[in-house]
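Section 3.1: Structural characterization of target chains.
Under the original work plan, the team committed to producing a structural model for every single-chain target entering the pipeline before any wet-lab resources were allocated. The record below documents one such target. The sequence was received from the expression subgroup and is listed exactly as submitted; it comprises 584 residues.
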Amino acid sequence: MVMAFLQEPAFAEMSPNQIVIVSNENSHGSDSVARHYAQQRGIPASHILELDTSTKETISREEYEQAIVQPIQTALKAKNLASKVRVIVTTYGIPLRVRAPRPSSQEKIWLEDAKAWRKSSVEFLQELKNDIEHIATQESQSVPSQSSAQPSDSTIDQRAIASLIQRVNQAIQEAYHRLEQLEDANSRKAHDLVLGRAIQRVNGLAGKVQILQHLSEKTATLMGAPLTNIRAQLRSAEHLVSLLLDVPSDKGRERAYQVVQKHFGVSGVLRFANQEIQRFSFASADASVDSELSLLWWDRTFAHPSGKIPNPLYAWYPVRAQEPSLSLPVMLVSRLDGPSPNLVKQMIDHAILAEQEGLKGNAYFDARGMDSDQPLSYGHYDRDIRRLSNAVQKNSSYPVILENTQKRFSQSGEAPGVALYVGWYRLRHYEDAFSFNPGSIGYHIASGEAVSLRDPMERGWCKNALERGITATLGPIGEPYLDAFPLPTEFFGLLLTGHYSLVEAFYLSTRHMSWQMVLVGDPLYNPWRGRTLAHKVKESGILRGQTFPVPPSERIISDPLQARKKLQEERRQVLSKLSIGKRR
């Protein structure tokens, strides 16, 4: 989805009619939380959906689809709300995590075939690397390096594949540099021809782009038309391969490998095989229920449950062409959950109180004195915490307390009166240094901080901060990797403008869906609405760009049922033209 911006947007509020609340009829307290929230926010009672599902925090993929997804879809259709509702509120008693599914017998067969493709591709790519290195060094005989040893399946992973492809591309650059130094024109031409063939074996038609770009730089000619035509072919191939991956079949997979090999060479085959392995093994397919519910109207052909997918609502992805699947709406999901129903009701009341009286207290920022220009690295996040600290100090009345060493806020009473908090890094070991004011918002950047929100023995940040009175927080149910956390300047920067509710700020600053993260808090919570901080946030520069993103609540969405039907028909027609029938 191309991110839409307005010069001077007239921001509207999320309407209660755009929200449904999901409760669990088997959980004591779930219905009372749902009804309390509906009453406090003026949400129609008909927008409360009662599910018959497990009271456990972790459920299987089958139960998630049968007891959560299908009943919600059915209820929204029956109530004529499918194209009107933007927000789903999960409540106390609704499961928190969904386990990865198990591969079917057919998927196990495809998995083994993909592993064979991956292994043979690694072997061939290593041979090509040696050939290219021979050109680069002008050795009389190619000597296999230690990395050319026969790979075992256990040693081939994403990192090893990326490293091998990087070494091949480095060898190509070294070969070009060596050939430019040759004085004998005939020898240079002969080696150029050999190198060109090797590059096209490595990268297919995409390798021709490399060659043309090298010639353009060398001769100062642009070769615009050939490059444009090739790139168009590559984009078309990418779209076709993506379709064949989404709707696998024996014939489709055979065709996909042919297309990949032609257009992207052996390196493309290697990447595609690894994608299939991730998909058919359901690696990293466990997720939070809430993150999966973002894809309520997406089925497996549009969003396979293996691993994370890009969040099309993220406000700072590079502008890109509209992708067909992105016409399906993304649901905004927030959770009203915690150690007890009474604490959850208090959380709701505190959010409303802070909106009425203002969010008061101190702003705490716990950095570690690190820095890095590498995007989304530890140093990058640490710098971002300091940037937010500086912006809050300069542009608001909040007292700011910045800890910028390896020390943390860890001692009892060390951080009283919290209004805002962001920091790290004590893994699943909440340190009782904080007292939270009504309306407080904060999160701790570490893995597994939302493994449980109700277990009395849970030591992670989210459950313990909720127990001590925080009003809104977020965290992962497992290992999300660093880039799953919103950058503090983006999440808090959007909130501070007063133009976005809690759930809108979260989805505009979160990169992934079908993943590990959970937002806990009243989705409508907006403590800085009308507080005249927007122009200061803009001037501070903590939000990239000169304009604010359009809130999800204001975007026109298509009817999800019609959109899905249309996309399914388009895919059926494409597969029919390719003479590829239904999956087998």
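Residues 105-137 form the longest helix (33 residues).
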